[in-house]
């Protein structure tokens, strides 16, 4: 059983936990939803098909992998699709530690689960996302579409790229 946080309260406590990846000194923290099958095999977030979309968008936004630190709302793979609220709550302390290891970073929340896990807000809808910056106790949060959703709705791909560009400008300044 993984013991990375409040695992006793987590319905996925017998799963394999996937830690974060990326630059520990990064000023941009990407928060995804949960690892999928490929991530469990490879032991890192965003290694599967959603990862392919994410890395293409990162490149188009003129960001490098070294600019980023990547974590998930829950560290284990949900057995039935999206993570439950109980799992997100149980894993929250671990998410907070990942975020707080990057003081003053810009947080990019990939999808509704991540927006809710980071901000605690329940009212957000995907359609509210594009082009806004939310406040959090850790700093600005840029909500955007989850790459797995973009796989199903390719028209959202340019919006994902634009939101990553927005995060880059918030981090490094408008001229960069
Ligand atoms: N892979 C991850 O690590 N997180 C996601 O949210 C999706 C795929």
CATH superfamily: Uracil-DNA glycosylase-like domain
Number of helices: 7
Described by the principal axes of the CA atoms, the overall outline is globular
Strand order of the largest sheet: 1-3-2-4-5
How many discrete structural domains? 1
What is the structural class?
Answer: alpha/beta
Radius of gyration: 15 Å
Indicate the CATH architecture. Answer: 3-Layer(aba) Sandwich
Q: Kindly report the CATH topology.
A: Uracil-DNA Glycosylase, subunit E
| Strand segment count | 5
Bound molecules: uracil
How much strand content do the residues show?
A: 5-15%
Q: Using the coordinates above, name the CATH class.
A: Alpha Beta
The first-to-last residue Cα distance is 44 Å
- Main beta sheet: 5 strands, mixed
Helix-strand pattern: EEHHEHHEHEHH
Helix content: 25-40%
Mean pLDDT: 92
